[in-house]
Automatic annotation (TrEMBL), chains A, B, C:
PANTHER family: ASPARTATE CARBAMOYLTRANSFERASE, ORNITHINE CARBAMOYLTRANSFERASE, MITOCHONDRIAL. GO terms for molecular function: amino acid binding; aspartate carbamoyltransferase activity. This is Aspartate carbamoyltransferase. The lineage of its organism: Archaea, Methanobacteriati, Methanobacteriota, Stenosarchaea group, Methanomicrobia. It catalyses: carbamoyl phosphate + L-aspartate = N-carbamoyl-L-aspartate + phosphate + H(+). Carbamoyl phosphate binds at residues 50-51, 100, 128, 131, 260-261. InterPro entries: Asp/Orn_carbamoyltranf_P-bd (IPR006132), Asp/Orn_carbamoylTrfase (IPR006130), Asp/Orn_carbamoylTrfase_sf (IPR036901), Asp_carbamoyltransf (IPR002082), Asp_carbamoyltransf_Asp/Orn-bd (IPR006131). Belongs to the aspartate/ornithine carbamoyltransferase superfamily. ATCase family. Heterooligomer of catalytic and regulatory chains. Pfam families: OTCace, OTCace_N. SUPFAM superfamilies: Aspartate/ornithine carbamoyltransferase.
Length: 298, 298, 298
């Protein structure tokens, strides 16, 4: 039985296989209802509407059904029930479980008690492998994944999305440019892991100093609560904002990604420029998750 | 691509076509699963269970699937995301979107950013075209729509349902009797529009003075918060309440409509009289919405 | 039209028929999508995730669809609407309604106004017939239902689950051992009914004094709010806790049941012993509810 718990569990071949499968689905569609009569159970202990919606859309497009396995309500209602007990019960109701949980390690634990496949839909500061696969797939739509120069912008200290993507890119010998204000850079341990795995990691204070060299710019949000006061948050947010003028002189084939929702990180005037790929990236959630669901249930 | 945003966008032929299609569905049923593998996305930024449920039931009866595209949760979660961004993302997950939103104009805006059809499920004090189509369809089940004499009862100043219905009836040369307490009559601008479009509009203080002449009596609720104090609310509610004795002497084929839920506006003793059509009207939500869904997705 | 309101409405033949049907489904599966295009409406006026989930899973496995008919939201939104009106409207949206309601008698009332079958998913301190059928089915998987010696543990004064099960077992001449602290024993009227129906009912203060004679031990939770203070709750909970040592010397074929979720009533060390059947019991919710849905909709 296959689970998807961490992007680190997947080698390059497995990632390439999923990307290929998603690409074929996006072009040719899936077979007629391959997952007919199958049930995808969504067990979300914290809200994550985008993740839930694109898994649900993916499952419906494959002819299957979805059901809400509770989560927030279960946890408040059944106070004191262990995650192990919950998983043992609900894995009788569904053919695969997507679990979203606030605690790191919850998905791994769940996979030990479930007798159906478990897909990690995000476990706290831990892993969220489908998001990383979507990011890789979106890059792959524009260029080969090997040896890209990628800039990661935002709160790189706490940003799960950028950590997982950076780690996955070690499979493809990326050159990683970490762009963040002081104090919000990549954790030392992650930088060590990335270099160990053969990636070059270069740190920057500003986007301007590196943007013209990049193939991919991956933008994420700053969390207001990481800053001592609103003024310093707005200062940082303003100086890392992506605008049309910042994009002058970049490579023709630069692509701009963002896991969405965005607030002010990217000026809406950028949306109509050829670099903008973040809405396409959001929609790629469906074919990538279709590929994952087929892997575990077909 | 066809959207349904306002009843004003539909001419008489288009309304008649929808009513005919709904009538055929109600009698013969739909083809076997015409919307198989299609997904209806429900994006409700304010609760409206009846509208949601009857769209959902309509979609399921056509062989399709439904998914909740968030709404209230999305808006609280993704603080600061624009409606345009939300629509661009979620229109990748569904084949049609039903949008309910507290702000007038939201559905029109959404239809500009969606690349799938948008059906307005109510935008604040604005439009709610499927409700009006249900009202027209229910009247049509009992009599031709042309030149009916209809009484509208309730808070006609703020009542979206009665405004849309009145407007739609201009297509059929109705004689409109507006029955409301002082201060809650039809807005001047609407009366002007209705008369401009060729309808006669007559205002009344009491139901008694006109009920014996009517073909249709359309009853709506008074909002308690429109009244200065509970006593004046109860006075008004009592004097506009529909009872068996009020109905003595009415036309044999009078029909009584109400968009439901009712509280005290109609005495339950009226339910078993032949005039009562409000439960039938509620159920007509399914075939009418089936017709609308087929129009936009088939 | 068949409703399922109370286990008391079912005679022994009807129960046996449902158990057989569930058993055949569990072994052979259901036909291909027997309830295709049918809609199960879930009307839950109080949360009950396990009941909802297993009905939903059962319906999906039969090829049908489910929809949430509101409940908690409806009731807050449509303040003042009667249950009769709600049922009249929503029974236009679904082919069967599962109703969960805090008030005893609500399901019976609903069945009078619905023109589709109503299944009681629990009405306050009243009935919850599908839970009892699951309990009977799980016992039947291990032994014939006739003349079993069953121990009921927990708050037997207020415990709906144990009352319904005890009542159903009168059809099978069970010997009922009621095990509870003073003040939380079976109500006098129920003991009278059980004896009237030919069952022997014996009361016990402790599990130890009877456990070695039992075929089935049915464990339920104590509600903390029934106790004057936390200390007396913990005292009772500890002395009625099921542990491996308590189980020494029991019959080889004793089975342990619990409606779940459990908190501390059963030591997790018991889970791996052959007596533990509570997870199997939870999963039996699906085939038993499949059988019920087929009875009312096929």
């Amino acid at each position: 039985m296959r689970h998807y718990i961490s992007i680190r569990d997947l080698d390059r071949n497995q990632i390439d296989h999923l990307i290929d499968r998603a690409a074929r689905i996006a072009v040719y569609g899936a077979d007629a209802q391959p997952l007919k009569r199958k049930i995808l159970g969504l067990l979300f202990f914290e809200p994550s509407t985008r993740t839930r919606m694109s898994f649900e859309s993916a499952m419906l497009r494959l002819g299957g059904s979805c059901m809400n396995l509770g989560g927030v309500e279960v946890s408040s209602m059944a106070k004191g029930e262990t995650l192990a007990d919950t998983i043992r019960v609900v894995s009788g109701y569904a053919d695969t479980i997507v679990l979203r949980h606030p605690k790191v390690g919850a998905a791994r634990l769940a996979s030990e008690f479930a007798d159906v496949p478990v897909i990690n839909g995000g476990d706290g500061a831990g892993q969220h492998p489908s998001q990383t696969l979507i990011d890789l797939y979106t890059i792959h739509q524009s260029m080969p994944l090997d040896r890209i120069k990628i800039g990661l912008v935002g709160d790189l200290m706490y940003g799960r999305t950028t950590h997982s993507l950076a780690y996955a890119l070690t499979r493809y010998n990326a050159e990683i440019h970490a762009i963040s204000p002081k104090g919000l850079g990549l954790p030392e341990s992650l930088k060590h892991d990335l270099r160990e795995a053969g990636c070059e990691v270069i740190e920057h204070d500003s986007i301007e100093e590196i943007i013209r060299d990049l193939d991919v710019l991956y933008v994420t949000r700053f969390q207001r609560e990481r800053f001592p006061d609103p003024a310093s948050f707005f200062d940082v947010a303003a100086s890392y904002r992506i605008t049309p003028s910042l994009l002058q002189g970049v490579k023709d084939n630069l692509i701009l990604l963002h896991p969405l929702p965005r607030v002010d990180e990217i000026d809406p005037a950028v949306d109509s420029l050829p670099y903008a790929r973040y809405f396409q990236q959001a929609r790629n959630g469906v074919p990538v998750r279709m590929a994952m669901l087929l892997e575990v249930m077909q």
